Amino acid sequence: MMGPLKIIALVILVISFFTFVTFFGRLPALRNTPIGTLHRILWLHIPGSIRSLDQRLTQGRLSAWTAKIAHTLWNDRHPLVMIFFILLLSVSEFLFLPPAWPLLNTSQTAIAITLVLLPYIFLYASAASDPGYITQENHSHQMTLYPYDFTIFYPGQSCHTCRQLKPARSKHCSICKHCIAKMDHHCIFINNCVGYRNQHYFLLLLFTTASLTTYATYLGFSLLSGQIRKEIPAWKIWGPGFSWSEYGNIWAWVLQEYTRIGAVTLLCGLTTPLIWGLLGYHLYLIWAGTTTNESMKWGDWAYEMADGYAFKRELSSDRHKDETIEPVWTRWPVESEQIVLRTDDGMPPTGPDAIGEGTWERVWKLKDVENLYDLGFWDNLTDVFRPRYGFRRREHSSSGSGSRSRPSSGDVTSVAPP
Ligand SMILES: [Zn+2]
Ligand SMILES: [Zn+2]
């Protein structure tokens, strides 16, 4: 009876699930869960078997051809996925709103108009804004944003493409062809990087899209429920007093009567948890004082540490800084007090990189090293939403020796944009 609708719902559910696995499966936090395993099967084992089969059948011609297309699709900036996203939004709104309009009261209309407009505004803001391009002109300013933490970012490393020093927390994006300040990830939905200067727009895009689909789900179900009540006055949305098959049949009937509202409501209901999940993940990253890019580096560290290849020792703040590769002053309120290094042989580090003082201590767990970029949730959030904000200098509370001097630059309240 509800054949086509069931199929549509199933297809959407499957697509949503695979999208979820693709986006979340590579995250270190989920590496040892079924999601991580499924991600490896989908993106490593299956492509690997197809490649070896292709090697036998066509001497690898098919793989080379697919790789070339995939390379073009993934490595150049083009708005394909963004157009798909805009179409999905617009077509759903076009299907839902005209039949729903006469059924809405004034406040529902006002909320609907607002919620429909907001994702477009923040999509435009995220896509059209500068995510934090590091250029020759603004390079010295970019260097003052964050200090090196000597754990996941070390001074003196250059970008081979841009031929300039990599500021702490930056990463080169091969799609945008720029180094990006506080690079989070390149997002194909906004056809832009998410970085220092636009991550607040990206968060607002996630929040407004999640709010839109949540409200559409709620509105869709209550409108349909209202229509059922016209026929069956005793009807309630959770269906008390009806058997499962009656309940199912009543929904199937109203979904067929109001196909356009019904289809969009189901689509929204299925995608809503996914969008809240993505927003939740980004809020978690902010809470942890990290980014998608950095969480990968921390994930790698966790493995090195567990294997016993990681060492740390103290880094005095009055050490001599090489000003040519490390900024003397940053707007960040704290500086690194430790250096963490990995070695290949499991012996304490030696050589020119092994700066610092005291004995090397083996580090087994991530919690034994400090994350310099975590100031606590509210300050981390401030750093996201007010990218020109300068923090007050802080003294480390954990610091044992009181005799340390820190380069004091007074109270910094605002750092001029480049
Ligand atoms: Zn670069
Ligand atoms: Zn990019």
Task: Please supply descriptive tags for the structure shown above.
418 residues; mainly alpha; 3 domains; three-stranded antiparallel beta sheet; 10 strands; binds zinc ion; EC 2.3.1.225
Summarize the structure.
By secondary structure, this protein is mostly helical. The chain is 50% helix and 8% strand. The chain is elongated, with a radius of gyration of 26 Å.
User: Please, how many helices?
Assistant: 11
What ligands does this structure carry?
zinc ion
User: Pairing-aware structural class of the strands and helices?
Assistant: mainly alpha
Q: Into how many domains do the coordinates divide?
A: 3
Distance between the termini: 63 Å
Computed over alpha carbons, the radius of gyration is 26 Å
Tell me, rounded to a whole number, the average pLDDT: 86
Oligomer: single chain
Order of helices and strands: HHHHHEHEEEEEEHHHHEEEH
In this structure, how is the largest beta sheet organized?
Answer: 3 strands, antiparallel
Helix content: 40-55%
> Strand order within the widest sheet?
1-5-4
Shape label = elongated
Q: How many individual β-strands? A: 10
* Beta-strand share of residues: 5-15%
Which parts are unreliable, with pLDDT below 50 for 5 consecutive residues or more? 397-418
Region (Disordered): 393-418
Biased composition (Low complexity): 398-410
Membrane topology: Multi-pass membrane protein
InterPro entries: Palmitoyltrfase_DHHC (IPR001594), PFA4/ZDH16/20/ERF2-like (IPR039859)
